[in-house]
Amino acid sequence: THQEQHNKHHFFKIILIGDSSVGKSNLLSRFCCNKFTLESSSTIGINFTNKTLKINNNQITAQIWDTSGHTKARAITDAYYRGAKAALLVYDVTKHITFVNIQKWLVDLRNHADPNMVVMLVGNKVDVRQPVVVSSEVGKSFAEKESMCFYETSALRGTNVEKVFMDVVDKLYSNQV
Ligand code: GDP
Ligand code: MG
């Protein structure tokens, strides 16, 4: 009923995936606390941050999971993927290998995750413009080929960070109602 819809509390688990140093932790801290750190502090194991949002007067908790992308940790535990409704697949637009490896992360994701998962391809560090190693066109057409949404972001400047997370939450919300 109308009444029930208004009082629902939605909970969405969203995971961050991608190579080490692409900016996953900074995308999360930019979105959650408007914070950015210059020095890289590699995430130890797995952690998550809750962000509370409102859509149409409904309370949403986005629980965003972060992990280190070190090769040793590549066999990410099932716990990381379990219950995840969306994934942000992040690469660094200034490091080609991180884009190449997206293919591997996608395989991981499709092996572990819910097939209905919302997946966004995110090219981070667009503030670094010399030289453009992975162009927007290349990123965009790969995303289209794999049925993913595509965003280019800068955790440093804040470009598109709010947008990509809000788009994920909007999509998850409209899938539910
Ligand atoms: P993670 O290993 O994927 O979690 O990457 P981090 O968030 O730890 O970031 C790795 C390094 O890249 C750090 O030195 C960050 O300051 C830097 N970094 C992250 N995002 C950006 C960005 O959007 N622009 C620039 N120029 N540097 C970034
Ligand atoms: Mg990290």
From TrEMBL:
Highest taxon listed in the record's lineage: Eukaryota
Nucleotide-binding recorded as keyword: yes
Key words, A-Z: GTP-binding, Lipoprotein, Membrane, Nucleotide-binding, Prenylation
MF terms in GO: GTP binding; GTPase activity
Example of a GO cellular component annotation carried by this entry: endomembrane system
Subcellular location: Endomembrane system
Main localization of the protein described in the UniProt heading: membrane
Similarity remark: Belongs to the small GTPase superfamily. Rab family.
Protein name per its UniProtKB record: MATH domain-containing protein
Organism: Tagetes erecta (African marigold)
